[in-house]
Design goal:
homodimer, 81 residues, alpha+beta, 3-stranded antiparallel sheet, 2 helices, 3 strands, elongated
Protein backbone atom coordinates (compact mmCIF):
# COMPACT_ATOMS: atom_id res chain seq x y z
CA UNK A 1 0.00 0.00 0.00
CA UNK A 2 1.36 3.41 -0.98
CA UNK A 3 0.59 6.36 1.23
CA UNK A 4 1.41 10.04 0.89
CA UNK A 5 1.71 12.17 4.01
CA UNK A 6 2.06 15.94 3.74
CA UNK A 7 3.52 17.84 6.68
CA UNK A 8 3.45 21.62 6.72
CA UNK A 9 3.80 24.41 9.23
CA UNK A 10 0.63 25.62 10.91
CA UNK A 11 -0.72 28.87 9.46
CA UNK A 12 0.30 30.79 12.58
CA UNK A 13 3.95 29.72 12.29
CA UNK A 14 6.40 31.82 10.29
CA UNK A 15 7.99 30.04 7.33
CA UNK A 16 11.36 31.65 6.54
CA UNK A 17 12.20 28.91 4.02
CA UNK A 18 9.03 29.65 2.07
CA UNK A 19 9.75 33.39 2.25
CA UNK A 20 13.22 32.81 0.83
CA UNK A 21 11.75 30.88 -2.08
CA UNK A 22 9.19 33.62 -2.67
CA UNK A 23 11.93 36.26 -2.68
CA UNK A 24 14.01 34.21 -5.11
CA UNK A 25 11.00 33.92 -7.42
CA UNK A 26 10.41 37.69 -7.25
CA UNK A 27 14.06 38.31 -8.08
CA UNK A 28 13.58 36.20 -11.19
CA UNK A 29 10.53 38.26 -12.15
CA UNK A 30 7.77 35.91 -11.01
CA UNK A 31 5.80 38.63 -9.27
CA UNK A 32 2.54 36.71 -9.64
CA UNK A 33 3.71 34.57 -6.71
CA UNK A 34 2.07 36.11 -3.68
CA UNK A 35 3.02 33.57 -1.04
CA UNK A 36 5.01 30.35 -0.68
CA UNK A 37 4.82 27.86 2.18
CA UNK A 38 7.24 24.97 2.18
CA UNK A 39 6.63 21.60 3.79
CA UNK A 40 7.61 17.96 3.61
CA UNK A 41 6.10 15.03 1.80
CA UNK A 42 6.63 11.42 2.81
CA UNK A 43 5.83 8.65 0.36
CA UNK A 44 5.53 5.51 2.40
CA UNK A 45 5.07 1.91 1.43
CA UNK A 46 3.25 -0.24 3.94
CA UNK A 47 2.88 -4.00 3.82
CA UNK A 48 0.67 -6.56 5.48
CA UNK A 49 -1.99 -4.09 6.53
CA UNK A 50 -5.67 -3.84 5.72
CA UNK A 51 -7.18 -0.48 4.94
CA UNK A 52 -8.73 -0.05 8.39
CA UNK A 53 -5.42 -0.81 10.11
CA UNK A 54 -3.58 1.54 7.77
CA UNK A 55 -6.08 4.31 8.51
CA UNK A 56 -5.26 3.90 12.18
CA UNK A 57 -1.49 3.55 11.73
CA UNK A 58 -0.84 6.44 9.33
CA UNK A 59 -2.00 9.30 11.56
CA UNK A 60 -0.22 7.66 14.51
CA UNK A 61 3.09 7.61 12.60
CA UNK A 62 2.55 11.13 11.31
CA UNK A 63 1.74 12.52 14.72
CA UNK A 64 4.48 10.65 16.58
CA UNK A 65 7.39 10.72 14.13
CA UNK A 66 6.91 12.71 10.94
CA UNK A 67 5.36 15.93 12.21
CA UNK A 68 5.97 18.10 15.21
CA UNK A 69 2.39 18.64 16.37
CA UNK A 70 3.32 21.83 18.21
CA UNK A 71 4.11 23.72 15.02
CA UNK A 72 3.10 21.42 12.15
CA UNK A 73 -0.04 19.91 10.74
CA UNK A 74 -0.36 16.92 8.47
CA UNK A 75 -2.71 15.40 5.95
CA UNK A 76 -2.53 12.04 4.25
CA UNK A 77 -4.04 9.95 1.52
CA UNK A 78 -3.79 6.37 0.38
CA UNK A 79 -2.45 6.47 -3.18
CA UNK A 80 -2.56 2.79 -4.04
CA UNK A 81 -3.79 -0.30 -2.18
CA UNK B 1 -5.14 30.71 -6.95
CA UNK B 2 -3.63 28.08 -4.67
CA UNK B 3 -1.25 25.57 -6.13
CA UNK B 4 0.53 22.59 -4.61
CA UNK B 5 3.82 21.44 -6.09
CA UNK B 6 5.42 18.19 -4.93
CA UNK B 7 9.13 17.69 -5.50
CA UNK B 8 10.72 14.32 -4.85
CA UNK B 9 13.88 12.48 -5.74
CA UNK B 10 13.82 10.39 -8.90
CA UNK B 11 13.39 6.66 -8.26
CA UNK B 12 16.99 6.00 -9.28
CA UNK B 13 18.39 8.42 -6.69
CA UNK B 14 19.22 7.22 -3.19
CA UNK B 15 17.25 8.88 -0.40
CA UNK B 16 19.25 8.75 2.84
CA UNK B 17 16.77 11.03 4.61
CA UNK B 18 13.91 8.65 3.80
CA UNK B 19 16.02 5.68 4.92
CA UNK B 20 16.70 7.38 8.24
CA UNK B 21 12.99 7.92 8.79
CA UNK B 22 12.29 4.29 7.89
CA UNK B 23 14.93 3.11 10.36
CA UNK B 24 13.50 5.34 13.08
CA UNK B 25 10.04 3.87 12.43
CA UNK B 26 11.42 0.32 12.62
CA UNK B 27 13.14 1.15 15.91
CA UNK B 28 9.76 2.22 17.26
CA UNK B 29 8.24 -1.09 16.13
CA UNK B 30 6.51 0.06 12.94
CA UNK B 31 7.80 -2.84 10.88
CA UNK B 32 4.89 -2.59 8.44
CA UNK B 33 6.74 0.36 6.89
CA UNK B 34 8.63 -1.11 3.97
CA UNK B 35 9.97 2.05 2.38
CA UNK B 36 9.99 5.81 2.93
CA UNK B 37 10.89 8.50 0.40
CA UNK B 38 11.02 12.09 1.55
CA UNK B 39 10.39 15.10 -0.62
CA UNK B 40 9.28 18.71 -0.49
CA UNK B 41 5.92 20.33 -0.90
CA UNK B 42 5.40 23.94 -1.91
CA UNK B 43 2.04 25.59 -1.36
CA UNK B 44 1.99 28.63 -3.57
CA UNK B 45 -0.48 31.45 -3.92
CA UNK B 46 -0.62 33.07 -7.34
CA UNK B 47 -2.49 36.21 -8.23
CA UNK B 48 -3.61 37.88 -11.43
CA UNK B 49 -3.32 34.77 -13.56
CA UNK B 50 -5.85 32.84 -15.59
CA UNK B 51 -5.84 29.07 -15.48
CA UNK B 52 -4.06 28.71 -18.82
CA UNK B 53 -1.30 31.12 -17.78
CA UNK B 54 -0.94 29.34 -14.44
CA UNK B 55 -0.65 25.98 -16.18
CA UNK B 56 2.26 27.39 -18.16
CA UNK B 57 3.90 29.21 -15.24
CA UNK B 58 3.77 26.47 -12.61
CA UNK B 59 5.92 23.87 -14.38
CA UNK B 60 8.33 26.64 -15.42
CA UNK B 61 8.82 27.72 -11.79
CA UNK B 62 9.08 24.12 -10.61
CA UNK B 63 11.64 23.20 -13.22
CA UNK B 64 13.69 26.37 -12.87
CA UNK B 65 13.61 27.06 -9.15
CA UNK B 66 11.91 24.49 -6.95
CA UNK B 67 13.31 21.24 -8.29
CA UNK B 68 16.71 20.15 -9.46
CA UNK B 69 15.75 18.38 -12.70
CA UNK B 70 18.93 16.29 -12.65
CA UNK B 71 17.89 14.32 -9.56
CA UNK B 72 14.33 15.40 -8.81
CA UNK B 73 10.91 15.14 -10.39
CA UNK B 74 7.85 17.22 -9.64
CA UNK B 75 4.10 17.08 -9.92
CA UNK B 76 1.57 19.80 -9.28
CA UNK B 77 -2.11 20.49 -8.94
CA UNK B 78 -4.29 23.56 -8.69
CA UNK B 79 -6.03 23.34 -5.30
CA UNK B 80 -8.25 26.40 -5.52
CA UNK B 81 -8.92 28.98 -8.23
Amino acid sequence: MKVRILVSLKESVLDPQGQTVRNALHTLGYNQVKDVRQGKVFEIELEGLGRAEAEKLIPEIADRVLANPIIEKFSWEIMET
